[in-house]
Amino acid sequence: MMRGTIAVEVRGLTKMFGDFIAVDGIDLTIKKGEIFGFLGPNGAGKSTTIKMLCGLLLPAGGKGLVGGYDIMKESEEIKNNIGYMSQKFSLYEDLTVGENINFFSGIYSVGRNKKKERKEWVIEMAGLKDRENAQTKNLPGGFKQRLALGCAILHEPPIIFLDEPTSGVDPISRRNFWNLIYEMSKAGTTVFVTTHYMDEADYCNRLALIYRGKIIAEGTPNELKQKYMVKYVLEIEVERVVEAMEVLNGKGIETAIFGNLLHAVVDTLGPSIELVRNILEEAKIPVYRIERVLPSLEDVFVTLIEVA
Amino acid sequence: MSILRIRAIAKKELIQIWRDPLSLAMAFMMPVMLLFLFGYAITLDVNDLKTVVYDLDKSSLSRELVREFTESGYFTVVDYIHDNMDINRYLDSGRARVAISIPEKFSEDIRTGRNPTLQVIVDGSDSNTATIALGYISAITDAYSRRMKAGNAAPLIEPRIRVWYNPELKSRNFIIPGLIAVIMAVIAALLSSLTISREWERGTMEQLISTPVKTPELITGKLLPYFFIGFIDVAMSVLLAVFLFDVPLRGSVFLLMALSGIFLFGGLSLGILISIVAKSQLVSSQISMIVTFLPAFLLSGFMYSISNMPKPLQVMTHLIPARYFVAIIKGIFMKGSGLKLLAVETLLLSLFGILVFMIANMKFKKRIV
Fold first, then answer.
1. Beta-carbon contacts of residue B347 (< 8 Å; ≥ 6 apart)
2. Measured between beta carbons, which residues in chain A are less than 8 angstroms from residue B15?
3. How far is CA B49 from CA B81, B127, B233, in A?
4. Is the ipTM of this complex over 0.85?
5. pTM for this structure?
6. Where are the domains of chain A?
7. For the domain bounded by B49-149, which CATH number is listed?
8. Which residues of B touch A58 (CB under 8 A)?
9. Which member of B16, B207, B212 has the closest CB to residue A80?
10. Does domain A6-218 have CATH number 3.30.2290.10?
């Protein structure tokens, strides 16, 4: 079983598909009970990494332990101690909610005395109380996602791996899903989650950004924002947002709309605020407020990927 | 091996078959349909051979000979012709398969003790039918001449022939039991050939191989429901054979079912193995058809006697499990054979099943390739 405080530790993890290096010697250390976010654009190597950690793909190189078991030699022991939710919905669509739960309950050998309790827990958690007999294919996306998560953790594994669990799910369902992840983390479960939604990264305890098979940044969300963001972000409140953005972009200041506000990325603080104010006043656009804000993770990653 | 996991998989598989009309039809309709189709279509019996008669003698004796032919039940006279050329016309067009030409002095020759000649022309384009027709023709003419010669010398040898196991020589009695074997060979492999590849195609396999389920548990769990379906199929086919096709079942039904179980185990394991290797439903069903249907149909001895095949083919037939099952099922149906007589076949079938099951277990990898 797991020793110490480390749930996952790998060094030099590598995977190749032909000549293509999908994962290029990455190191990861994940503490017990942590929500570890694994971020990166599509095709960066997120899924390949998660599959290697779950014992579904044999790594081409590297070494490490997941839940205390060797990723090269003990993949079956690893499978006893993890829950895995793949990117694609992978429950049986022609089975009902209850039948899917019963099936995975049997597969994970959930004890007779716990079976009923766990089943009720999953149904409750997925919000499917009156739909136990509904065929899974007829459920809306958000419910499917939570049911899939529930089935993957019926056996209460110490570590769970979630591969883009919220892709294609509406924002409210995403929020609910993250609440579930928080609860499990509070109960001591280690959660390894990949996503390409940058706003979700803020929910994680720690993050790693993978790009072209390599980890290019790692740390807590705040560390990443402070350490890697060399530029400043100004939040601007103006009268005519779209026109203001066009004017500023025309003057070479990188500006984007955030709700009914503008975000401008600038190199210096004082002089830039003055410059922005002058440009807008010249264009006869009333300015109410300009102030510096902490960049979002999305700003950070765009900058990082440009550097890489 | 965990009974819990095997049960979970078997139950899931059963629900999936039950909810899928296509799977259900394949499991229960296909064997019955095939049995009907082949059971009625394949017959080696020759009845009602269309016959034309060219009678130049026009005597009571010649008419008696023609009556011998028609009363045998094998020949039906479609026309009496008066022109030699009409024989060509009838046989060329296929309106008749046999022409009997009785010469002018037929009755006179018989009365004066000379040997008359009788010309019979048979359409040889279907050589199987022709061969059988020839047998009937010589039997009828032999009987006729013996009767005409009565009081004269008795024939040197008078054979007392008894046909064992199928006294009426009904081809259906040996085709139907063999057919059950052929159909089950195809159905077994076809049914199970979709189970693994379907899970790869639908993406559910990725979830399944991330769980602690063990390969033998997975394969056994998937085999079980099909095993019972196969059993029901065999039982249905045997019932149809006995009650619809009137094939006598002389041996033990219990033995028949038990040995069918052994055969099913091998056939289903073969399907699973194909499913594991092919990974796509389309490819696996096609491979299953090719590796089961043709060999079972042509090389199992179900219809074409193995001892008449060229030596290399005879050797090949030993690799085809259907061969042993055909021998078993024909033995039990027609000869009432017991296990003692079928021991070798039973042993080889068991061996085949165990071997294929083991290879399937070895070939299945709980990893993505």
1. none
2. 94-95, 99
3. 17, 14, 36
4. no
5. 0.81
6. 6-218, 229-305
7. 3.40.1710.10
8. 367
9. B212
10. no
Beta strands B98-102 and B49-55: pairing type? parallel
Question: What is the DSSP code (8-state) at residue B45?
Answer: -
CB pairs under 8 A between A and B: 84
Residue of chain B with shortest Cα separation from A54? B210
- The bridge status of strand A254-258 relative to strand B75-80 is unpaired
CA distances from B236 to A291, B173, B193, B257, B346 (A): 83, 17, 22, 11, 22
Asked if the C-beta of B128 comes within 8 angstroms of chain A's C-beta atoms, the answer is no
Both tokens of residue B133?
């027709």
A92 vs B4, B204, B368: nearest CB: B204
Per-residue pLDDT of chain B (369 residues; tens, 9 = 90+): 889 999 999 999 999 999 999 889 988 999 999 999 888 887 777 778 899 999 999 898 899 999 989 998 889 999 999 988 889 999 998 899 999 999 988 888 888 878 888 899 999 888 888 888 888 898 888 888 888 776 555 666 777 778 788 777 788 888 899 999 999 999 999 999 989 999 999 999 999 999 999 999 999 999 999 999 999 999 999 999 999 999 999 999 999 999 999 999 999 999 999 999 998 899 999 999 999 998 998 899 888 888 889 999 999 999 999 999 999 999 999 999 999 999 999 999 999 999 999 999 999 999 887
CA B314 remoteness from chain centre: 18
Taking the CA of residue A64 as centre, how many other CA atoms within 13 Å lie in the half-sphere pointing to its CB? 27
Which residues of chain B lie closer than 8 angstroms to A79, CB-CB? 210-212, 366
Residues of chain B with CATH 3.40.1710.10: 49-149
> Would you call B161 helix, strand, or coil by DSSP?
coil
**B9/A104 CB distance under 8 A:** no
B207 with A84: Cβ contact below 8 A: yes
Question: Which residues between 57 and 116 in chain A have a beta carbon less than 8 angstroms from any beta carbon of chain B?
Answer: 57-58, 75-76, 79-80, 82, 84-86, 88-95, 99, 102-109
Coil vs helix vs strand at B78: strand
Q: Which of A56, A76, A90 faces B204 most closely, judged by CB atoms?
A: A90
CA distance A298 to chain B (A): 31
Class in CATH terms, A229-305 = alpha beta
Q: What are phi and psi of A62, to 5 degrees?
A: 105, 175
Q: Within the 32-51 window of chain A, which residues sit less than 8 Å (CB to CB) from chain B?
A: 51
DSSP string computed for chain A: ---TTEEEEEEEEEEEETTEEEEEEEEEEEETT-EEEEE--TTSSHHHHHHHHTTSS--SEEEEEETTEETTT-HHHHHHSEEEE-SS--S-TTSBHHHHHHHHHHHTT--HHHHHHHHHHHHHHTT-TT-TTSBGGGS-HHHHHHHHHHHHTTT--SEEEEESTTTT--HHHHHHHHHHHHHHHHTT-EEEEEES-HHHHTTSSEEEEEETTEEEEEE-HHHHHHHH--SEEEEEEESSHHHHHHHHHHTT-EEEEETTEEEEEES-SHHHHHHHHHHHHHTT--EEEEEEEPPPHHHHHHHHHHH-
